[in-house]
Design goal:
The chain is α+β, with helices and mostly antiparallel strands. The protein has 3 helices and 3 strands, in the order βααββα. A 3-stranded mixed sheet has the order 1-2-3. A hairpin with a 4-residue loop joins strand 2 and strand 3. The protein is rod-shaped and about 75 Å long. The mean pLDDT is about 85.
């Protein structure tokens, strides 16, 4: 977790926001004792459903999936009546 004083936060706000968007927590401190006063975190954290490959191995296709569509169904997909 990154920590910054209020002065550092004012000076480097854009950089601290970028760190927060990457998932880091940024702690803003105050005073000589560097007492924590604010935690900077993204509004929305990335959800697990956006992770690539999260459904790997959970679905199966039978052999018919790879077969060409029948002519009448293919015409419907192409917008022909």
């Amino acid at each position: 977790m990154r920590s910054a004083t209020i002065f550092e936060a004012k000076t480097n706000l854009s950089k601290l926001i970028q760190r927060g968007l990457r998932g880091e927590e940024v702690l803003i401190t105050s005073g000589r004792a560097r007492k924590p006063v604010v935690r900077l975190v993204p509004v929305e954290r990335p959800s697990a459903s956006r992770r690539i490959g999260f459904l790997k191995g959970q679905g199966r296709f039978d052999e018919g999936f790879w077969e060409p569509l029948p002519e009448d169904e293919l015409r419907l997909w192409n917008g022909d009546d």
